[in-house]
Amino acid sequence: MRYISLFICLVITGSIFSQEDKVSYFKTDKTFVYADNEPDSFYAIEIPGDSINLSEIQGAFKVDDYIIQFIKNPYSTEEYTNKMDSTKEIELLKSKMKWELDYIQDEVLKQKVKSNYNVFKNKLGKRFLLWEYKLPEMDYSDIDVQTIKNYFLTFIANRYVACISIPAFEDNDDISNFLHKISENIRVYGSEINLDALYYQVDAKDDEREIVYTDSLSHYEIEIPKWFNVINTNSNIVFGGTFPDIDNIKNAIIISPYKKETFDSSFSKFNNENVLKLKIGDKLGGGTVLLTKEIETPKSVNGVAYNIQVARGSSIYENICYTLDTGSHYLLVFFTSTPKTIKRNMNLLNDLVSRIKILN
To answer: What is the DSSP string of 250-290?
Structure first.
């Protein structure tokens, strides 16, 4: 197995070849990546392709033989929140489809078009709406290549409905299959994307490598799974990321190192201050503790392991907390989920925690 080390201070030069405001795009050997880091967006799309060029169409790119446009539209909390069921999510995606179709039919073409749609989930459980409409036969004798269909892959990315649009110049299933393939490589983050980490993840995946986050100061490292979405934590020493979203809920994990001297070099004192002394009614992370329960300690953890349930507003959060002694620092590993997602993400959490290694 080959590895790339991802150190705590990263600077990429020349990898991201364009960045406008908070929208970035870059090319690896085999993949084009579009990343939207604007507030309340936070998503990245990986598209297989050998060549990438700007298209004559504003906001569109030519990736190999495909012309690809990225679009997003906000939605209101009356339309959908992630506390609603999947029916409401599908209704929202279909409403954006209807709006686009109405515009095409009523304002652009002035006639009805044939359309079709399909709702599906990718392998990680993310829901998508794939739809297309067929253009009517018209006289475009002055155009060499004519668009026959337009395809749209839509999904929810935090507070937006995001869309990938591709025109088809032949009537076959190539673009539909291509968009299904792309859906497996769409990341929706719970916070601001760490673009450096994203670049290394995509580049490593191209060559079937793994990347390792190394904190040599705190004496630990963690091999980053391909599914893990690394976020900016606004700290040079705190590592964090979010899990693939389930019904538009992104569970998160933060690994925070602490100097041993702060706790008189007592691991027991550290464990007590951060975990063991918590009781029902205490304040934690802007919420109120409802329950603390000791759980099984993973093999990679040499400290304590607890489930801490917290109420914040009208929501309840399930938190898994682990502590580690690295020799030079103490680590607090804090995983936050909802009652709906914790069971479905425990295997991923166990996988991630098992990759933590204390350095000699």
So the answer is: --EEEEEEEEGGGGTT-HHHHHIIIIIT--TT-EETTEEEE
Task: Look up tokens 């607890």; give the residue.
Answer: 306
DSSP state of 18: E
**Residues 79-116, buried b or exposed e (16+ Cβ, 10 A)?**
ebebeeeeeebeebbeebbeebbeebeeeeeeeebebe
Per-residue model confidence as pLDDT tens digits over 241-260: 999 999 999 999 999 999 99
User: For residue 284, is pLDDT > 70?
Assistant: yes
Phi, psi of 264 (to 5 degrees): 55, 30
Whether residue 357 is predicted with pLDDT greater than 80 in this model: the reply is yes
Report the largest interatomic distance among the alpha carbons of the chain, rounded to a whole angstrom: 82
Taking CA atoms, 247 is separated from 165, 184, 188, 322, in Å, by 23, 15, 11, 26
What pTM, to 2 d.p., does this model score? 0.90
Query: How far apart are alpha carbons 54 and 356 in whole angstroms?
Result: 41
Residue 331: count other Cβ atoms within 10 Å of its Cβ: 24
Tell me the residue type at 236. N
Cα 275 to chain center, whole Å? 29
Q: Where are the beta strands (DSSP E) in 37-79?
A: 43-48, 52-54, 60-63, 66-74
**d(Cα 285, Cα 256) in Å, to the nearest integer?**
14
Distance CA(349)–CA(340), nearest Å, equals 15
Q: Looking at residue 145, what is its pLDDT?
A: 59
Nearest to 134 by CA among 176, 182, 183: 176
Q: What is the CA radius of gyration of the chain?
A: 23
Tell me the helix, strand and coil percentages in the chain, rounded to 5.
20, 40, 40
pLDDT at 292: 97
CB atoms within 10 A of CB 334: 20
pLDDT band at 1 (very low <50, low <70, confident <90, very high): very low
Mean pLDDT is lowest, of 170-174, 233-237, 286-290, 333-337, for 170-174
**Cα 122 to Cα 179: distance, rounded to the nearest angstrom:** 11
Q: Measured between alpha carbons, how far is 126 from 275 in angstroms, rounded to an integer?
A: 33
